[in-house]
Known about the structure:
The protein is α/β, with parallel strands linked by helices and 474 residues long. It has a domain at 88-402: Alpha-Beta Barrel (TIM Barrel), CATH 3.20.20. The protein has helices at residues 2-31, 117-126, 139-150, 176-189, 202-214, 247-250, 258-271, 279-290, 293-296, 306-314, 323-346, 365-376, 381-387, 390-396, 442-459, 465-473, and strands at 35-42, 52-60, 63-67, 76-79, 84-87, 89-94, 129-134, 157-164, 193-196, 218-221, 240-243, 274-275, 413-416, 430-435, 438-441. Strands 1, 2, 3, 4, 5, 13, 14 and 15 form an eight-stranded mixed β-sheet that branches. β8 (157-164), α4 (176-189) and β9 (193-196) form a beta-alpha-beta unit. It starts with a helix and ends with a helix. The structure holds zinc ion. Zinc ion binds next to loops.
Amino acid sequence: MKKFYLLTVFVIFSSCNMKISTEQAYQSSHQEMIYAIKNVNIIPMTTKNTVIKNATVVIKEHKIYSINKSIPKNATIIEGKNKWLIPGLIDMHVHTLSDGTPFVMYPTKGPLVSFNTQYNMTPYIANGVTTVFELGARPEHIGQRNEIIRGDVIGPRIALAKVIGGNKSNLTAKTPSDGRNAVRFAKEEGYEFIKVYTWLNEETFKAVVDEAEKQNMKVVGHIPVAFKGKQAKDFFIPNFGLIAHAEELSKQTDNYSYKKAQEFARLAKENSTWLIPNLSNMVAIEQQAKSLQNIENLLGFKYVHPLMQNKWLMSNSYHGVSDDLIAYYKELIDFHILIVKAFKEAGVPMVAGTDAGISGIVLGFSLHEELKLLVEAGLKNAEALASATRLGAQWLGIDDKIGTIEVGKFADLILLNENPLEKISNTSKISSVFVNGKWIDRNKIDTMLSDVENWNNDNKEKFDWKELLNSLKN
Ligand SMILES: [Zn+2]
């Protein structure tokens, strides 16, 4: 035992050293890059959100160094005339592909499929998504995050939520004491958030939420099916801080009225429970149920990993359902919209999240779709933008570091060709992106994207979802 302890200390100590030295190397090579964006219109996304016209923004050492002050001599000048600067976007609900499959036998046998982290992250960066909330976090995501922190990969900041109450690779918990242990285990493993999942029973759900509060971890997630038929006040409890989809609410009732939506909103308000409406997911479900052509037509589909392209087209579980079910999906979309209206009316904060990575939801590209849908559902352009910037940062507890354009915050920024306050779809007219103070200009974005596209085209034939599943069975 003692030996093991010493070994652990040694490993931690040496890996700490390594981290410091790589970080220093990364920073020193980065330190020389100082940028000044001139004549740009800043949409700061602060609560007041007063647009600052024709401003000069200096970016230095990863951060927003000054606004409307002098330009350092060695700064690289970026012309921002007629352009608009917004904070980098946050997708509050993603599932990024990561290595690993069940039944691997380390160290002689590696994962069945593995992924190039840069290619996984490129669609986020190309779309100005500079922070993501991973709601199905596994150790491999911690690895991806480390690659980004080291500077080996250009990618977003990643917040991680560990699932409790799912099946397969997630932590299962059948009793309150299982639930509490699972929370403590997740904390020790290095996850910052807990995601409660569909299959928890009522007592265990409550114990998980309570233990997470004790461990200072916020809780996001599904509403367990065990609550169906009970009163909504049973599952709206303090520290269940964020509902992962509006669909969770629609699963708890057959009454899709505005009155029901208002009841949910009132209880959410009372318990400080925020909502990810996740309209894009519901729309995508309906779209692929209708036709698989809608999958192929998705913006950014060519950047989806070939394994997922194959799965979405060849093993699509939504496609081929009855017309009645398609009509039901439409009803669900309409109820989602009522929920957004009711939550807005009650003043419950909503944050933008897409479920990126699941069938029909393309990483990065889908967040712009979500913003459009939020506006169609009744949010103002500025409110939709806040849901994908300041509010997301606030829920994650990092609003002192990102989410708005203010001096001292990290330089996660998007330079847009058109004003998104006039038209929300202008968020996708990206001129360039800053990721942690690193400037990715349009040429670089296009090169990064075509690298992914070329690799996908060259390797398409190698990935077959059904074959992969079969090989797991054998
Ligand atoms: Zn999800």
